[in-house]
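Person: At home tonight, work slowly through the protein below, taking as long as you need, and write a paragraph about the fold.
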Amino acid sequence: MTRDTGDEQALTDLDLTRLLQTLTVESDRYAERFGARHGLHRTDVNALALILDAARRGDPMSPTALSRELRLSPSATTALIDRLEALGHVERTRPAGDRRRVALEVPEGALEEGRRMFVPLAGAFAAAWTGFDAAEREVVARFLEVSTEAMREVGADWVHDRPQRGRQGVEAGRGVRRGTSG
């Protein structure tokens, strides 16, 4: 493990941040390989993860909720759902009792494809974690939960920000001319 300090006992905040960053990058790469294998864009893979997570909670994802979660326009969300549906990864269903609502579900065939990709990863994680006792797992879980929440909070601040342009771009955007008197 790479550490910023020479002290082998003390992990710094920067050490932990870099370890989380490395995990995130590898997770992204894994999800991108899954997407490439199934002809999915990264946003499509993220949508599937959200739909599956909602199903696990027993609260089927609606197109409106998906649009909100992905921060996509309704038309972009419809195009995304159409792509997923055409590839057999999602079905639009109407829950009993309220035919006006639309729920997004992942059919069994698509679930099986996902299992082929992610069950081996879960097995590798389980093997890697065998040395952690219950108390250590509680600390790891708490660490991951608070780190995820911190990322959500900081990320929420970026949603409304516009991209920063360099000094020259800002000046050009304002019509600032150098070396002229007018």
User: Anything to note?
Assistant: Confidence is low (pLDDT under 50) at residues 169-182. The helical segments are 13-37, 42-56, 63-70, 74-86, 108-128, 134-159, 167-173. The two ends are 59 Å apart (CA to CA).
